[in-house]
Amino acid sequence: MDNKFFQFNIFARCKEYNVPLRQCPQFLFVVMGFVIMISSIVFYLMGERYISDPRIVAFVVLAVAMTLLIIAFIITHSFEDLAEANRMKTEFVNIVSHQLRAPLTNLRWATQFLLSEEFKPSNEKENLEYFDIIKENGSRMEGLIDDLLTITRLKEDRLDNKRTKFSLSELTKEVISEYKTFINASNLTVELKPAKDLKNVSASYPLTKIVLENLIGNAINYSKGGGKIFIELKELTKKVEFQIKDNGIGIPMEDRKRIFQKFFRCRNAVKTEVYGTGLGLFIVKLILDGMAGKVWFDSKEDKGSTFYFTLPTN
Amino acid sequence: MKKILFIEDEVAIQKTLGEFLRKKGYEVQSALDGEVGLRLAKTGNPDLILLDLILPKKHGLDVLKELHLDNNTKNIPVIILTNLENVGEVEKAIEFGATTYLVKANYSLEEVTEKIKKVLGD
After folding, report:
1. Taking chain A (314 residues) in consecutive chunks of 10 residues, what is each chunk's mean pLDDT?
2. Are the C-beta atoms of A241 and A169 separated by less than 8 Å?
3. Do residues A231 and A169 make contact, with C-beta atoms less than 8 angstroms apart?
4. 3-class secondary structure, B118
5. H or E element: which one contains B81?
6. HSE value, Cβ hemisphere, 13 Å, CA-based, for A211
7. Residue A91 CB: number of other CB atoms within 10 A?
8. Residue A105's closest chain B neighbor by CA?
9. How distant is the Cα of A108 from the closest Cα of chain B, in angstroms?
């Protein structure tokens, strides 16, 4: 109910967009509404005086009103796009600065603690714990910057998105071998089952690799220590379907709609000690949308998730 | 020994600031989410609460609101310790009874400790 009223509260909407009233799309729309009403009345009065046929008067008034309405729509729509871009930019800067500040604070405070008089480590292990904080948070910042750069480059078409034909199965094997140490350390096994005589996919090789790194990385990160990750590749009509199944923490029902949103992290993922930027799945969707692919998932909280994507073969 | 309840989900922050305060002579109780934090605030009789805002299970502002509505906890001073800096959050925190609002990135460990000392009257 509140949201419905909010739609009509011009001043609140304009405040949200953070633009002056004269540039606010909702305010402009109201102004244009008045202009249309006044113009219609003026044309009606003029038409009644100079044109004898009332049908022509009605037609002229209608034509003028329609033309003004179309102009009003175009103007307010373009302003709305601008205002929305402005609002999103502010929100983006707020989120990014918060995301960068958190590891920065951790770095600063761990260093200050190590340098303080209060720090008297009782053993080598305690000493190393603080160096681990520094190392981990350095990587956190690096990961966030890498993800942000990937998004910017994707949006500006600056990443290598040239389509080639390659084997998705071979690329998957390559990514799995890159994660081998990580997989062993997490006590996991990964099984890859590609369909026989699988056709090559037609996609960008480096971008598909980013997709696989994100999905395989997530499956490892959110597995609950031990277990199996099962990857299957199937051939469908004119496309190949990839699926990756884990028995990890799963995605809570209430978070499912937002899973591909920028900076979104599930509640149960936040509770784990696994750090994430909330950008991985956003990047996966952005890449697959741009390569005529599709991504979706099934999940059960505490039981695990299966992520699927398709890529065209021609 | 004065007791501080530290509600913060970042393990690294719990480790550095929590340990720093312990070395400075405070008893520090840790909570990694809003729900546990609220429970400990009601049962543990802390002298001061350090509260982050973005918390799992219960948002910091909801924790603050509930603390403010409870007669047993409404007089415990609460220092908001966060990296959020927008005016709306600050206004709400003050409205719900926060004693002060600190942006983590702007303070050193020593400076945070000084603020705590001041609020506790040490």
Report:
1. 57 72 78 84 82 81 86 80 74 73 91 88 80 90 87 80 92 95 90 94 94 95 85 95 94 87 73 71 93 94 93 92
2. no
3. no
4. helix
5. strand B78-82
6. 32
7. 12
8. B105
9. 8
B49 token code pair: 């609460």
Q: Does B110 touch chain A (CB under 8 A)?
A: yes
Angstrom distance (rounded) from CA A257 to CA A248: 19
Q: Which residues of B touch A108 (CB under 8 A)?
A: 105, 108
Classify A230 as helix, strand or coil.
strand
How many residues belong to chain A?
314
Can you tell me the ipTM of this complex? 0.89
- How far is it, in rounded angstroms, from Cα A313 to Cα A64? 52
Gap between the Cα atoms of A236 and A201, Å rounded: 11
Residue A192 pairs in a beta bridge with A231
Helices and strands in chain B: count of H runs, count of E runs: 5, 5
Q: In angstroms, rounded to a whole number, what is the distance separating the alpha carbons of residues B6 and B21? A: 10
Provide the pLDDT for residue A1: 41
Give the dihedral sign, CA A287/A293/A294/A299.
negative
**pLDDT of res. A2:** 47
Look at the alpha carbons of B73, B79, B81, B86 in this order and tell me if their dihedral is positive or negative. positive
CB atoms within 10 A of CB A158: 10
Mutate to test the interface with A, among B8, B9, B10 (most CBs of A within 10 A): B10
Residues 6+ apart with CB under 8 A from B59: B34, B53
Kindly identify which residue of chain A lies nearest to residue B104, measuring between CA atoms.
A105
Q: How many C-beta atoms surround the C-beta of residue A298 within 10 A? A: 14
C-alpha–C-alpha distance, residues A293 and A47, integer Å? 57
Q: What would the pLDDT profile of B8-40 be if each residue is shown by its tens digit?
A: 988 899 999 999 999 999 999 999 989 999 999
What is the rounded distance in angstroms from the CA atom of residue A2 to the CA atom of residue A86? 24
User: At A173, is the secondary structure helix, strand, or coil?
Assistant: helix
Beta-bridge mates of residue A227: A188
* Torsions phi, psi for B89 (to 5 deg): -65, -45
Number of residues written out for chain B: 122
Q: pLDDT by residue (tens digit) across B49-68?
A: 999 988 877 889 999 999 99
